[in-house]
From TrEMBL:
<feature type="domain" description="SnoaL-like">
    <location>
        <begin position="9"/>
        <end position="102"/>
    </location>
</feature>
<dbReference type="InterPro" id="IPR037401">
    <property type="entry name" value="SnoaL-like"/>
</dbReference>
<protein>
    <submittedName>
        <fullName>Nuclear transport factor 2 family protein</fullName>
    </submittedName>
</protein>
<dbReference type="InterPro" id="IPR032710">
    <property type="entry name" value="NTF2-like_dom_sf"/>
</dbReference>
<dbReference type="Pfam" id="PF12680">
    <property type="entry name" value="SnoaL_2"/>
</dbReference>
Length: 126
């Protein structure tokens, strides 16, 4: 499986709203890094499953799309946009880049997430 096929498979799994299908895109020993929120770093497919079960409960109509991607060596750089609605009707957009690698089976084995909620708050000068 090529990196672009793995990327497509992951986006399709997210849009299927099936946490098991999403988790199946990741290796058992997957490493997740979140440089802006280091306490969110973790290892393992089981945590991917737990996290996506929670995400899909919070955003039952979540849709994901890849806006851009580029591959260099064994790394895939991708820009994601995810849109969903909370139970109170609030629409939420999460966007940003994800850098990741796949293993020899085409499963995501490592990723660095820079996804953040999109805010329309103006920047206030200091």
């Amino acid at each position: 499986m090529t990196d672009s096929q793995a990327l497509t498979k992951l986006a399709e799994a997210i849009n299927s709203h099936d946490a098991e299908s999403i988790a199946a895109c990741f290796s058992v020993d997957y490493v997740s890094e979140n440089p802006h929120h280091p306490s969110r770093n973790f290892v393992g497919r089981a945590t991917v499953l737990r996290n996506w079960m929670a995400m899909l409960t919070r955003f039952p109509n979540l849709t994901a799309r890849v806006l851009r991607c580029a591959t260099k060596g064994d790394e895939v750089w991708s820009e994601w946009e995810m849109v969903g609605t909370l139970a109170d009707g609030t629409s939420v957009t999460i966007a940003g880049p994800v850098i990741w690698c796949t293993d020899t089976q085409g499963l995501v084995s490592w990723a660095r997430f820079y996804l953040e909620p999109v805010s329309d708050e103006p920047i206030r000068p200091s």
